Amino acid sequence: MYKLALIGFGVVGQGFLELLSEKEDILRKNYQLEFQVVAISDAQKGSVFSGQGIDFRKALEWVKAGKSLNDLPGEKNGMDALSTIESCGADILFEATWTDIKTGEPALSHIRKALEKGMHVVTTNKGPLARYGKQLIEEAESRGLILRYEGTVMSGTPLLNLIRECLAGCEILEARGILNGTTNFILTKMSEGQSYEEALKTAQKLGYAEAVPDADVLGWDALAKVCILANTVFGASIIPDPEKLPCKGITGIRKEDIENAKREDQIWKLIARVYRENGAVKVRVWPEKIPLTDPLAGVTGAKNALTIKTDALEEITIAGFGAGRTPTGYAMLIDFIDIHKNLRRR
Amino acid sequence: MYKLALIGFGVVGQGFLELLSEKEDILRKNYQLEFQVVAISDAQKGSVFSGQGIDFRKALEWVKAGKSLNDLPGEKNGMDALSTIESCGADILFEATWTDIKTGEPALSHIRKALEKGMHVVTTNKGPLARYGKQLIEEAESRGLILRYEGTVMSGTPLLNLIRECLAGCEILEARGILNGTTNFILTKMSEGQSYEEALKTAQKLGYAEAVPDADVLGWDALAKVCILANTVFGASIIPDPEKLPCKGITGIRKEDIENAKREDQIWKLIARVYRENGAVKVRVWPEKIPLTDPLAGVTGAKNALTIKTDALEEITIAGFGAGRTPTGYAMLIDFIDIHKNLRRR
């Protein structure tokens, strides 16, 4: 019986608890996995703790009804994130707060505090992994703890679990792909005939792009994600700084470029790459024209995809949605199942 | 220390031992996985057994030099497959003999004998799984043994391991994809301007197609593979009979069809499907025109791909090579690692 604590109760945290609710019986039956949620803490939505387990379905309803968790009956209310982690006695921390790529905070402090307290950690937060991925893995391993972060690169579309479980024993040579759904959506709309400005507006209307879309359209988000790959799968320590790394977005792509590519049976994609050059791990985010015969070519709309080159399998490509309430919640669930499998192996 | 027996020492069996040779140190270091090959038996290349382990690197060289394993120094030579399985005392059987879709033999008898003797089994052989997948899984489970067959559907491109490990807890709703590399290669050549007859000849020259190409071009191979999915992932018991199931190949597709599709931003693919209808699991192999915005559209040449629909992740697509010495050898290796991980969990 695992005691779980959840920090951050927005779209992802709620998506995760919804899946736990839906799949509680299957998890018990298929994986002998049992759990209690002992704490939920959110900077806006309040916090509740109960050492014997809180009614997390009620917490979901409560928050959906617009009520504060501070008023949900429990052993203690109102604790902030760090106090919750300090005192809740959970076995696994699920971190789903907002992302700050530059500092990794506040998630970085949450993760470190949880590791100090002997908790395994699951996070969907790009910030801490993009910048401190290698260190955090080492900090967890040195304590015999498991850190999982499937949701940080392609949401629930299996990528890090795929590399670890399904490519075990393979040498991962390099990877390239589409790691930002917003820009891929805009490029898809442009290839359907919209101008950049029209496509951006469509993306904003549908909630795919922010009002200030820089982090997506200038390639920063894709850069952070490819740095997570570099710093965790390739063992590098690259700082995801768009000013110091080769990083170019899609703002310079015009209708004519799209049409010219079409005539050559090609298509524009914002391609993130991680590769080795003279022994060093390198990353790069750049718009590229790729042929229609590339497995990445048909990856359209808000989808993401990565082509991984290995020694034994040449290339494999994995594609799927790179965001969303249920997919990202599922990223937390698969990491939870993976931690459980690993602990049973010990 | 696992004792391994290998039945069938053709391209796949040799590819597997080459990988074991190359990765022996990594397997020990990263997975605490140690092994001895105690027997190799092949209907053409002879057989060798040694309870204390044979020098499998020497066996590889021996066979590459055209010599019979019957002459390789060991404890006993010349045993056929069933006698080898009966007496070798291995922990895991690796089955890589030729495929007979109708009867599943001789692999079916090899697998059943191994299970009787208490061995875990890894196979790349489509025959037994396509027809008896559900029964074989039950036979293994009832004895507490593990049966793995990653190589049967998309070679080493992770599919069955992906579903089991990376989609754990997901409900698999349906799947559709390209499961035959030969026909996909022919269709790709046709979209480059060749006629069906020219493309088939090219495929035959490159060794992708047999002299009698029926099993590929009439859809039978793809049907067998989608039946493996139906009978193992979806729990059905479908007999892969192309005369009784909806199965159509690519022989009716003409140059004009290809060109017409192009004008509509579409592309012809031989699509294998497994789905549920009125509670029953159904399969179907049929040529389909799909839009260029489909993740399967860019899967060209001899590659395979499958789009899997689940409750939590909508669709994910996995693509990669569906055949070849090293990829299929790797399918055996990843299954071996997976069995090891499972046994450590017990």
Description:
Two copies of one chain form a homodimer. With 346 residues, chain A is an alpha/beta fold. Chain A has two domains: 2-156 and 325-345, Rossmann fold (3-Layer(aba) Sandwich); 172-321, 2-Layer Sandwich (Dihydrodipicolinate Reductase, domain 2), CATH 3.30.360.10. Chain A has helices at 11-31, 56-64, 81-87, 107-116, 126-142, 151-154, 160-166, 181-191, 196-205, 214-217, 220-232, 255-263, 325-345; strands at residues 2-7, 35-42, 46-49, 76-77, 92-95, 120-123, 147-148, 172-178, 266-277, 280-291, 303-310, 314-321. In chain A, the strands form two sheets. Chain A has a seven-stranded mixed sheet with strand order 4-3-2-1-5-6-7, with helices on both faces. In chain A, a hairpin with a 2-residue loop joins strand 9 (266-277) and strand 10 (280-291). The radius of gyration of chain A is 21 Å and the shape is globular. The model of chain A has no long low-confidence stretch (mean pLDDT 96).
Largest interface: A-B, 51 and 51 residues
Q: Percent range for helical residues of chain A? A: 40-55%
Q: Which structural category do the helix and sheet elements of chain A fall into?
A: alpha/beta
List the total number of helices of chain A.
13
Task: State the CATH superfamily name of the largest domain in chain A.
Answer: NAD(P)-binding Rossmann-like Domain
By CATH reckoning, the class of the largest domain in chain A would read Alpha Beta
CATH fold-type name of the largest domain in chain A: Rossmann fold
Tally of discrete structural domains of chain A? 2
SSE pattern of chain A: EHEEHEHEHEHEHHEHHHHHEEEEH
CATH architecture of the largest domain in chain A: 3-Layer(aba) Sandwich
Identify the quaternary structure here: homodimer
Query: Could you give the order of strands across the largest sheet of chain A?
Result: 4-3-2-1-5-6-7
Terminal residue distance of chain A: 16 Å
How many strand segments of chain A?
Answer: 12
- What overall form of chain A do the CA principal axes indicate? globular
Sheet with the most strands, sense and barrel status of chain A: 7 strands, mixed
Radius of gyration of chain A: 21 Å
